[in-house]
């Protein structure tokens, strides 16, 4: 065994669900964590962008977006994705498989978006982006006045990423950083390892 070989965490080590619940805010916290969502694009290059973590549960981590977006084309062709969440002194990298979340979940997530993001989901189009500054301001304000309450646009969609691997990185100014990694096998059982940071 070399110094970089993983060490299997001792029995009784908390599973990923327990650690996730410590690291992530509760689903009703209005301050949502940001994640870098990495996908495999049709060109073969990886692609990446920031999305909000809408919520998480026993199934996985959820994000919401526009069904016409590049990321949706990517995950439709190849559901294998990575999520990277970063906090001061901490990083969580998740590899997993993305699938559409239920209609009920998508509706719940829309209700919990801020009013600004609800409106953005209606106006986030290429034609709106092409308007000049004055028109973008006036059309945004006009839409807001005409729609005091909003329901999801038909393009609103959501995905859940079911993890196959979660890597929790923790820094420590007084000693070496370290990662705790969980891998899910084909039967759904988790194995935990300790890795060099
Ligand atoms: C802080 C921040 C949060 C964002 N949150 C989301 C989000 O939750 N959903 C989303 O579709 N786009 C979000 N975006 C925009 C995406 O990063 C991206 O520009 C957009 O979704 C188009 O990505 P695509 O062309 O790769 O599909 C966010 C951007 C930033 C900077």
UniProtKB/TrEMBL annotation:
<dbReference type="InterPro" id="IPR019576">
    <property type="entry name" value="Pyridoxamine_oxidase_dimer_C"/>
</dbReference>
<dbReference type="InterPro" id="IPR000659">
    <property type="entry name" value="Pyridox_Oxase"/>
</dbReference>
<dbReference type="Pfam" id="PF01243">
    <property type="entry name" value="PNPOx_N"/>
</dbReference>
<protein>
    <submittedName>
        <fullName>Pyridoxamine 5'-phosphate oxidase</fullName>
        <ecNumber>1.4.3.5</ecNumber>
    </submittedName>
</protein>
<feature type="domain" description="Pyridoxine 5'-phosphate oxidase dimerisation C-terminal">
    <location>
        <begin position="156"/>
        <end position="196"/>
    </location>
</feature>
<dbReference type="GO" id="GO:0010181">
    <property type="term" value="F:FMN binding"/>
</dbReference>
<dbReference type="GO" id="GO:0004733">
    <property type="term" value="F:pyridoxamine phosphate oxidase activity"/>
</dbReference>
<dbReference type="InterPro" id="IPR011576">
    <property type="entry name" value="Pyridox_Oxase_N"/>
</dbReference>
<dbReference type="InterPro" id="IPR012349">
    <property type="entry name" value="Split_barrel_FMN-bd"/>
</dbReference>
<keyword id="KW-0285">Flavoprotein</keyword>
<dbReference type="Pfam" id="PF10590">
    <property type="entry name" value="PNP_phzG_C"/>
</dbReference>
<feature type="domain" description="Pyridoxamine 5'-phosphate oxidase N-terminal">
    <location>
        <begin position="33"/>
        <end position="117"/>
    </location>
</feature>
<comment type="similarity">
    <text>Belongs to the pyridoxamine 5'-phosphate oxidase family.</text>
</comment>
<keyword id="KW-0288">FMN</keyword>
<dbReference type="GO" id="GO:0008615">
    <property type="term" value="P:pyridoxine biosynthetic process"/>
</dbReference>
<keyword id="KW-0560">Oxidoreductase</keyword>
């Amino acid at each position: 065994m070399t110094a970089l070989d993983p060490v299997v965490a001792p029995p009784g080590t908390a599973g990923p669900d327990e650690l996730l619940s410590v690291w992530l805010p509760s689903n009703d916290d209005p301050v949502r964590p940001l994640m870098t969502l990495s996908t495999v694009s049709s060109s073969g290059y990886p692609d990446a962008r920031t999305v909000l973590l809408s919520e998480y549960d026993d199934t996985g981590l959820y994000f919401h977006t526009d069904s016409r977006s590049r990321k949706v084309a990517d995950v439709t062709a190849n559901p294998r994705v990575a999520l990277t969440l970063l906090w001061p002194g901490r990083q969580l990298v998740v590899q997993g498989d993305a699938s559409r979340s239920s209609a009920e979940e998508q509706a719940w997530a829309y209700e919990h978006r801020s009013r600004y993001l609800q409106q953005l989901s209606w106006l986030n189009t290429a034609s709106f982006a092409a308007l000049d500054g004055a028109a973008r301001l006036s059309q945004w304000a006009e839409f807001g006045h005409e729609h005091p309450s909003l329901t999801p646009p038909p393009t609103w969609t959501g995905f859940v990423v079911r993890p196959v691997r979660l890597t929790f990185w923790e820094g420590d100014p007084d000693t070496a950083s370290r990662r705790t990694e969980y891998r899910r096998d084909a039967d759904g059982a988790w194995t935990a390892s300790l890795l060099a940071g």
